[in-house]
Amino acid sequence: MSLCVGPAMDWHGGKGNPAHSKELRFLTKAGWLKKAQGRLVASYKDRYIQVLKTEIVVYENEDLQNCLERLDLENYDHCHELKSPFKKKHRLILIRSPRSSNMVHDLKFQAPTAEEKEAWIKALTDCISRAKNKIFDEVHVCVAQL
């Protein structure tokens, strides 16, 4: 986990950090979810979540000014529905990889609807696969001297 530093992405095409506009191209899903704060007894807080190419970025709100954390999806194995005795709770969980450090823990989220929950699970699963296979995304060009 790393904390975000620097200006927010510019959504309106104005002058901004070029690295952030590059991130915007890889935006897979963005929206509001409730994120669990604790490990055992979880209290959920509303957070604006962006799923980029191989990471999750958590913001305090939609203006993207206060980034709370940046999580590499390579540290997670899969995402699935979190079974709950309360049918109206549309929860999902990101399960950490056994190879990841002890600082990485499972993440729990709650979506507003069942449809949104399924869309988030699909987006996170796709990005976890992309993060695990990012070596295949790299292109190396070798120039041989004659």
From TrEMBL:
Record-linked InterPro entries: PH-like_dom_sf, PH_domain, PKHO1/2
Pfam families, alphabetized: PH (PF00169)
GO BP annotations listed: macrophage apoptotic process
PANTHER family: PH DOMAIN-CONTAINING PROTEIN (PTHR15871), PLECKSTRIN HOMOLOGY DOMAIN-CONTAINING FAMILY O MEMBER 2 (PTHR15871:SF2)
Organism from which the protein derives: Echeneis naucrates
Name this polypeptide is given: PH domain-containing protein
Domain PH: 26-129
